[in-house]
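User: Once you have settled down, look closely at the record that follows, taking as long as you need, and be ready to discuss the fold:
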Amino acid sequence: MFHLEQSITEWRTQMLAAGIKSPVPLEELESHLREEIQQQLKLGQEEHRAFEISVQKIGRPELLENEFQKTERTFMKTTIKISPGILGTLTGAALMVPGCIQLHHELAVANGKLGLWLLGLVLLAWSFELFRKMIRGQAPKKIPEKVPLPLPKQILKISAGMVFLLIGLAFVMPAVAQARDEGMMKFDEVAFLVFGIALLIAGGLVTFFPYTKRRA
């Protein structure tokens, strides 16, 4: 004779044996199983048949175990990927704090804090780029397609990039020279340095990377 509660208990035992030990998912699965059984009973199915159909719909223990393992692996991979970015952000911010405080009070960065400030800036830039790649990787995959530009546009593109590079160098070099000669940077030189680095990055991208478009 079929006993519904005993069958559900055996199903729970199989779930535990399959490795689904966390109480929250197991309770949720049992709740869904019981709801599905009630739906099947309302449709006129006998208890044993309602139980079998519901188990097939909810999923058998071995299949559910594989799904839980896939979810756990995905979570672990995401955690491993994001951890360096978080660490880089926190470390970069911590390295920049002393220089920023000195810059705020003295309008200059010196006495060894300049090197830490620059290292922190590099770490922050690297962390933001890592996060950008992660977000971009979660977007729907698109195939990059190189689009050749006509020769006049290629010349214009490279010329614009070179202008950005030269202007960036013009902003960066005085700050670098001051840091080398005096071991410090004043507020305006720090601002010029950051702006110059941004121009160098933009100029490098425009000059050396081909124009591409993405297609679905």
Observations:
- Helices lie at 4-18, 23-42, 47-58, 61-106, 113-138, 151-182, 187-208.
- DSSP finds seven helices and four strands in the chain.
- The mean pLDDT is 77.
- Strands lie at 108-110, 143-146, 184-186, 212-215.
